[in-house]
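User: Predict the complex with acetamide.
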Amino acid sequence: MKRVMIILLAVLGFCAAGFAQTIIPKPETVVMKTGKFTPNAETKIVLLAQADQLKSAGDLLAGYLKESLGLNLTVTRKPVANAIVLALATKDMGLGSEGYLLDITTGGVKITANSECGVVYGIQSLRQLADASKDIPCMSVRDKPRYGWRGFMLDESRHFFGAAEVYKLLDRMAFYKLNRFHWHLTDMPGWRIEIKKYPKLTSVGGKGCDSDKNAPVKFYTQAEIKKIIAYARIRGIVVVPEIDMPGHATAANRAYPEHSGGGSKRHPEFTFNPGKEATYEYLTDILTETAALFPSPWLHFGGDEAHYGNQQWPSLPEVQTRMKKLKYTKLVEIEHYFNRRMADVISSLGKTTIGWDEVTGSGVKPSQAIVMWWRHNKPKALDAALDKGFKVILCPRVPCYFDFVQHSSHKSGRRWKKKFGDLPKVYAFPEGLIDKYDGKKQAQIMGIQACLWTEKVKEVKRLEFMTFPRIAALAEAAWTQKSNKDYAEFQTRLRSHLKQYAKWGIYYFDPFAPPLVKEPVGP
Ligand code: ACM
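Assistant: Here is the predicted structure with acetamide placed in the model:
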């Protein structure tokens, strides 16, 4: 009898161990155990931390379990049995600033981390397990990320989606432990952030979008932005604003033409005036309000593609005078001067600048700025940024621009010499690209980011179609160590996530049945 019991237990143990957990991104280690924990109406969420430290994390978990299991769980600081305990570690357990332990036993659950955001990541793993089944298999998860920067950028200048969609996107980023929301708020078609000192930026510059220059004024008030930042913070996400300059300034120049540096036939009124002192004061005011609004330690000032619209600079008296005074002979020299001055403003505001990779050679110091490498066709630009000692975020067009198609059958969306970012390519990133760099240079790479530009994304349906499920592959590429990545096995886990997308009503691309999914076309 005893032998039969042992064999039976061993078989049960094997079955439990054979359970394929469905967490994306894949954790560092998962040890499956026998049995399961089924939260019920009596289960409590217990906070083991000082005062209110984990209060919002507890409320977040309660909200998730209401959604996935229909339970209204109480949050308390009194230890009880049948509990999901959220705890801040009292001793070093090698989890770093974002890691967590998740222990699920038949009696309850415990999540331990060094920080609130570590606890929140443990909550996301538990949430995914609860979404998959109300009987949560017992297991012990130990987890921490590969990269500190796990970003997603949304362009709301080309098309404006509004707060409700941003909240949804932030929650889905949190689901995947993405932690940086890069918000592209200004560009050619529209200016989307309220700046109190210059109200015409939104009342005039907020009018129109990429597909309709007469579209009604759309922008975020500072009050709305504060709420979005708070919502993101609770989910472990920092919101990083981008105010693009000296190029991509068309919407701002409609509002305040006195600061325009002109443009080209193709890109009229594209730049700010890099010669005019009043323009530096105006941009300093804008950055000062932006810096005060966003707690983010980073402020993105663009810096890309100024040459699209610098053609009129030689004929502007202020530019001529300044170039003469500084003994500049080339337009790129005054562009670099502009970048240095604005990066110094951002430094004086107590923030670190982020710029697109064009800023690498402009004399902005590696101690004050981070470079986003986006020109995948210019690998030397990445080499240069690393050689100069910059910290770098990788978001090359292929495979990180999510306005590129994600399947060969797709008609609407970008390709670059037939190349695009399908699911396997996003998953495999940045392997291959970074292998040639030594350890010091690899350590300069802060992480990776997807960018959803929206010239061809007008509707939410298409936003979702371009984002899902690539966002899951991005998350695993950013979080999971290279040695632990396995595309075939990722696909198995992804299948259960597609069911969750369907429950949420997301219009996702199904990579397992591409011809069956109707592609929403862009404008
Ligand atoms: C960019 O795509 N112009 C950064």
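The chain has a mean pLDDT of 95.
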